[in-house]
Structure formats: structure tokens, C-alpha cells
From TrEMBL:
Keywords: Isomerase
Molecular-function GO terms, alphabetical: isomerase activity
Cross-referenced InterPro entries: Phenazine_PhzF-like (IPR003719)
PANTHER family: BIOSYNTHESIS PROTEIN, PUTATIVE-RELATED, PHENAZINE BIOSYNTHESIS PROTEIN
Name the record gives this protein: PhzF family isomerase
Coiled-coil boundaries: none
UniProt xrefs under SUPFAM superfamilies: Diaminopimelate epimerase-like
Family (UniProt): Belongs to the PhzF family.
Organism of this sequence: Anoxynatronum sibiricum
Length: 299
């Protein structure tokens, strides 16, 4: 069996920036154990496996693995997988329906100059627990920050659009950049709260046109820090809208984020939030990508 394998940098047009993901184009006959072994070998935060199993409900199935476990969905690996799929199939515009462990979701391929931009519809929005008292104290210790560093206009809350994250508002970019995590403390907290990711963000982006700078930590699933995270910024869009920080618009409100600077892998993502007058209804994220290399694995 010859597997076609790509390394892709998502949320960047520049090589060696953004968030790297592996993509296996023809994973149709792989076992779950083989997928896990390949993800461990690729050693990216996630590797996407495309299973070409078209049905009436969807065009392809995509499974996502960290080096240590399968996850229901992944933003940057979705961008990578569909960027590669579009290249392989010669698609410049169109919609691909993907089956994932988070549900059946559309992904749009949109022409962007001489390249393509990938637009990912995220899964259903869920607002989870707000971290208080002991949980909040453990979080602060795990991030190495003080309570005075936290923005007091927004709660520290678990939010999901398919793969939950803890939203952590930070007052300044200087504090955001200074975070040094205690992986064991955050892993212990993840077991307590049932959420593996912590998205620290600030409105102090220090860049015109960019609303938010962020950093995402998930040591409980083997990712001490992730460069640019779709499944953190999608929930962020719902959360900011829910609490009135951005406008509710039926035709969609779009803002830009940057992430990855602390890792020297800066990338940019657009977040698109569609709301009625009362609440958020739908979140999409979009970004560019570039191929680092294409190779094959013989099994």
C-alpha cells in the first residue's frame, strides 16, 4: 500500500509559519492503529486522514489524530486536508461535505487570487461551565499568571464549536507573551473540568485590523502549545458575540485573529459569526495554506 502524504502549513501563505498538519490523502484502508502510528511519526499537533467513501450524505470522511489520540475535529488540519483535496482534485471553487466525529459539515473552497482559501463551518455551539474559585486558581497557577492579569469584563468559560476550549481573557499582550505553562497542572485541571484546551487571548493585538492575539495550550492531549487553532477561535467568535463584544449580524460579522508569535509561527485566521437578534447561530473560520512537502509511505 502506497500512501500519499502531505505536510501543510495552515493559516499562512508562508512556509514554516502558521500551524503544520499532516494529511494522508488515501487513508481508505488504514486501521485506527495505523492512523495513530502515522500521526505519531508525523509528530504534528494533528494529522488528518481522508477516507474517500462518498455517500448521499457526504463526499469524504476525515479523521484527526494527535500523536497520542484521536480527536473529533481540528480546525487547522481541516484547512490542510481540504486545501490538499482541492489541489489533488483540481477544485478552485466549490463545497465539500465532510463527515467527522463532530458531525457532517460543509467546507467551502474559495478562489483567492491565484490560490484557494478554505472556509470551515464549525459544529454546534455549546456554552459550558464558568471556572470559579478552586478551578480558576488552578488555571492561573497552570498558566503562571495572576488574577490581576485577567480581563474582568468576560468570564473564564468552556465554549465549544465541536471541540471545547476554555476561553481565558488576558488584559495585555505583554502578559499573554509571558505565559509559561505548568503542563502537569493544566493536565490535572483538564481531568477535573472535562476540557483539554485553554485559549488565552487579548484584544491588545498591537496590529491594525487584527482584533485578537491568542495562544492555545492543550498538554492533556500532548500539545503544550498549538500555533494557530481553528477550534479555539471558532468558539471565541461565539463567546465574544454572546457577551456583546462584537455585533450580532444575520449576514455575518467577520474579524481577524493572529496566533503563534510566541512560537515563531505566526498565522492569521478570519472568524465569521452569524447571529439572529438573540444569539449566535453559526460560526465559520477561514484561512490560507501552503504545501511544505509531498511524499509517500509504503506499508
Amino acid at each position: 500500500m502506497e500512501l500519499i502524504v502531505y505536510q501543510v502549513d495552515s493559516f499562512s501563505k508562508n512556509l514554516f509559519e502558521g500551524n503544520p498538519a499532516g494529511v494522508v490523502v488515501n487513508a481508505d484502508t488504514l486501521t485506527e492503529n495505523q492512523m495513530q502510528q502515522i500521526a505519531r511519526e508525523m509528530n504534528n499537533s494533528e494529522t488528518a486522514f481522508i477516507i474517500n467513501d462518498k455517500t448521499k450524505e457526504y463526499d469524504i470522511e476525515v479523521r484527526f489524530f494527535t500523536p497520542t489520540k484521536e480527536v473529533p475535529i481540528c480546525g487547522h488540519a481541516t484547512i490542510a486536508a481540504h486545501y490538499v483535496y482541492a489541489l489533488e482534485k483540481g477544485i478552485t471553487n466549490g463545497t465539500i461535505i465532510q463527515k467527522t466525529k463532530a458531525g457532517i459539515l460543509p467546507v467551502e473552497i474559495v478562489s483567492d487570487g491565484d490560490d484557494q482559501r478554505i472556509v470551515m463551518t464549525q459544529a454546534g455551539i455549546e456554552y459550558g461551565n464558568i471556572l470559579l474559585k478552586d478551578e480558576k486558581a488552578k488555571l492561573l497557577k497552570g498558566l503562571g499568571i495572576r488574577e490581576s492579569d485577567i480581563g474582568n469584563e468576560l468570564p473564564i468559560q468552556i465554549v465549544s464549536t465541536g471541540h471545547s476550549k476554555v476561553m481565558v481573557p488576558i488584559k495585555t499582550k505583554a502578559t499573554l507573551d509571558s505565559i509559561k505553562i505548568d503542563p502537569s497542572m493544566l493536565t490535572e485541571l483538564s481531568a477535573d473540568i472535562g476540557c483539554n484546551g485553554y485559549y488565552a487571548f487579548t484584544f491588545d493585538s498591537e496590529e491594525d485590523g487584527v482584533l485578537v492575539s491568542g495562544r492555545m495550550f492543550a498538554p492533556a492531549i500532548g500539545i503544550n502549545e498549538d500555533p494557530v487553532t481553528g477550534n479555539a477561535n471558532g468558539p471565541l467568535g461565539a463567546y465574544l458575540t454572546h457577551y456583546g463584544k462584537i455585533e450580532k449580524r444575520e449576514d455575518g460579522y467577520t474579524f481577524e485573529i493572529k496566533q503563534g508569535e510566541a512560537m515563531n509561527r505566526k498565522g492569521y485566521m478570519k472568524v465569521h459569526v452569524f447571529s439572529n437578534k438573540e444569539e449566535v447561530e453559526l460560526v465559520k473560520i477561514s484561512g490560507n495554506a501552503c504545501v511544505v512537502f509531498k511524499t509517500s509511505i509504503n506499508l
